[in-house]
């Protein structure tokens, strides 16, 4: 029987059947949401149900991996799967109150890509077992980025809807969908950043401690990128409180912060694959 | 059978110059309806008179054609010559009348497709007809169904979605920015009629307070009193703008009132909180550049009209689906109406059968109660009861068949065969009539009153 190094073996766990259900449901939900946006309003209920199925199947997959001792924050690769799960959950929750078809058309394919990337990219081998500190850092960073991802999706919808209104494009999908009002999108995004920011801050501090304990070099590109994320959200919160920033400016800051966070994740993922 | 009919004119056929001549004031409608049903072959009637249509919906008396007399009656009521209406007045009967009224109730025949007022007007007209005593069971059922169809059309299609007039669009656009309008403040600049309408619409949609400002304080006061708002001096314009969420502007100024310089200060003062500016003045009150400020959503009269056009196009698409619903419902209603013609006959037939059966049953029960009967005798009583009931029920149709002329006999025999599902054996004509298949029972001494009617 082949023996593996513990970490290397864990990284190569095959996707569960629930993973395939989740992939199918994400793909179907993306398609149906697109049809809803194209005018098939009657399919809205079906679309949200499919998102629900995807969410549950995704959760089952994470749980199933847990039974095989794969922690959802064991590696950046795993964390990306968890991130998609969090974003889907947030979308599902918000959909109970608001019409977020445009958001769904963006969020569902992204969740699908993240999940596939998390499960089907080459696993590589873990350099060593993660310390508890490392796991807490990855967990919190993932949750923080997940919350930012959702805030960013709302900000992206805000920008699209605001543009349709400003440019008076009354025949565009963004106008016709009659989605959540601008003020609501702005407020929800702001609240989410208030939630995500402390979590992300703690994650960043723990990450810095972890890196210094490992004695690794600090001149990797992901560190300044993570700092950009933190700075963007810190500036946004200060700007909102002190100078009343809101609307388009706030939405752009939210997206800049998230883009930097995504770049960090991408670098980790690519490096793991290369190494 | 009574027939449903429609006679009238609408915006589709008649210009306002004729519609206004034929229009009836609310207080005239009841008396007109009473007169209409007295002097014409009309059993039930309703009169609807709105700015876009004057129509009579009614039920003709059995066998009569009511549309001609009603056309004449309407013209006469308004002192018009028949020729004046000839090109614009229309009538529909039967299924065409049903479809027409269903379409009217569903606002498919309205000037603004899907508008909500017509249903309320039709309900009010139905109420007036009820009060005047001119609506009866057929018209009642017809109108109730029409209201049901209208409700179905509104809920199952997007015919009523999206604002279809300028003041509703103002509310729709403000809702896109703010969501719920409760607690939002409205500033009306100038005193145009359109801005008054829009402000009222915003107020009924939940906006908290309406502030009015005008270069002329008297005009501001007058308008504020009219719409339950507060008048504020023109000099406070900048402060008012900084406090307001929704601005409706329609001054008669030649130069823009809402300038970029003013809004630079205003947006900063309101810390870029969102603001909807609806400029319905021509020439425009707002410089287009104010729409570039973060949080300021500026719409001019052309924008509002563009939204109306887009919404109406959407409604037109929904109209096709609504038309199919109306078609289906009209078909069902016609079916129901057809069955109503035979309902009295069915009822009388059932009552007659029940009466015959009941009379004979009572006699049999009395006979059984009079003394002890052996099981065989009881059986005989029951057999005789059934035979008597059958004989009594068949007596009249059989006699009528025998007494009819040969042409009538053939027709009647055919109808009977169809109604009872009979297949008479050929070649037995001329034979003596066979007895009923119930076994013959000898008459009992104890039942001398139980005689066959034959």
What does this structure look like?
The complex is a heterodimer of chains A (275) and B (454). Chain A is 77% helix and 0% strand. Chain A is mainly α. Chain A has one domain (15-274). In chain A, α2 runs antiparallel to α3, α2 runs antiparallel to α5 (101-120) and α9 runs antiparallel to α10 (247-274). Chain A is globular. Chain A starts with 5 loop residues before the first helix and ends with a helix. Mean pLDDT of chain A is 83; it is low at 1-11. Chain B is an alpha/beta fold and 454 residues long. Chain B folds into three domains: 4-156, Glutamyl-tRNA reductase, N-terminal domain (Beta Polymerase, domain 2, 2-Layer Sandwich); 166-309, Rossmann fold (3-Layer(aba) Sandwich); 371-454, no CATH class. Helix content of chain B is 55%, strand content 12%. Chain B contains 15 helices and ten strands. Chain B has helices spanning 16-22, 26-39, 67-77, 82-86, 95-105, 117-132, 137-156, 166-178, 193-204, 217-226, 237-243, 260-269, 301-370, 375-403, 406-420, and strands at 4-10, 42-49, 53-60, 90-93, 185-190, 209-213, 230-232, 246-250, 275-279, 296-300. In chain B, the strands form two sheets. Chain B has a six-stranded parallel β-sheet, with helices on both faces. In chain B, α5 (95-105) crosses α13 (301-370), α8 packs across α9 (193-204) and α11 (237-243) crosses α12 (260-269). The two termini of chain B are 36 Å apart. The interface between A and B is medium-sized, with 23 and 21 residues.
Summed up:
The complex is a heterodimer of chains A (275) and B (454). Chain A is an all-alpha fold. Chain A has helices at 6-11, 17-37, 44-67, 76-95, 101-120, 132-166, 173-176, 182-214, 222-243, 247-274.
Element layout with pairings:
The complex is a heterodimer of chains A (275) and B (454).
Chain A: H1 6-11, H2 17-37, H3 44-67, H4 76-95, H5 101-120, H6 132-166, H7 173-176, H8 182-214, H9 222-243, H10 247-274
Chain B: E1 4-10, H1 16-22, H2 26-39, E2 42-49, E3 53-60, H3 67-77, H4 82-86, E4 90-93, H5 95-105, H6 117-132, H7 137-156, H8 166-178, E5 185-190, H9 193-204, E6 209-213, H10 217-226, E7 230-232, H11 237-243, E8 246-250, H12 260-269, E9 275-279, E10 296-300, H13 301-370, H14 375-403, H15 406-420
Parallel strand pairs in B: 5-6, 5-8, 6-7, 8-9, 9-10
Antiparallel strand pairs in B: 1-3, 1-4, 2-3
